[in-house]
Design a protein that fits this description.
Layout (H helix, E strand, L loop, with lengths): L7 H27 L3 H4 L1 H26 L5 H30 L7 H4 L2
Helix pairs in contact: 1-3, 3-4
Length: 116
């Protein structure tokens, strides 16, 4: 394996994107732990992890393109699938929780859904 040096024009944005992706994923994880009920806990992971994964994948695409000397766009497919699947999964989980709460006739619904 030969040691190839990464150019500064690719290393600097990739480092910033990796730090931003890690920070967004951390914020999503903290929101998942700290928020009081299930319905509030669904938003930070779906947004934070999706945006964090997007930043990491863009950084990977940038570094791969710089090292190979040609555009590498495989990560765009991964980004597309993550961006499409994470919010849909969160929506299905929320619908299942709403169905469960309604079937048990609970009154612990979030304020926004009871005021409609």
């Amino acid at each position: 394996m030969s040691a190839t040096e990464l150019p500064l024009w690719a290393a600097l944005p990739a480092a910033i994107l990796l730090i931003a992706g890690g920070a967004l994923a951390l914020i999503g994880a903290i929101g998942l732990v700290r928020l009081p009920h299930f319905f509030a806990r669904m938003h930070p992971p779906s947004m934070g992890f999706t945006l964090g994964a997007g930043c990491v994948l863009i950084a990977s695409m940038l570094v791969s393109s710089a090292l190979l000397g040609r555009p590498v766009v495989h990560e765009l497919l991964i980004t597309l699938f993550v961006v499409m699947s994470a919010p849909v999964t969160a929506m299905l989980l929320v619908r299942a929780a709403l169905y469960r709460d309604r079937s048990r006739e609970r009154t612990s619904m979030p304020e926004s859904s009871t005021q409609q």
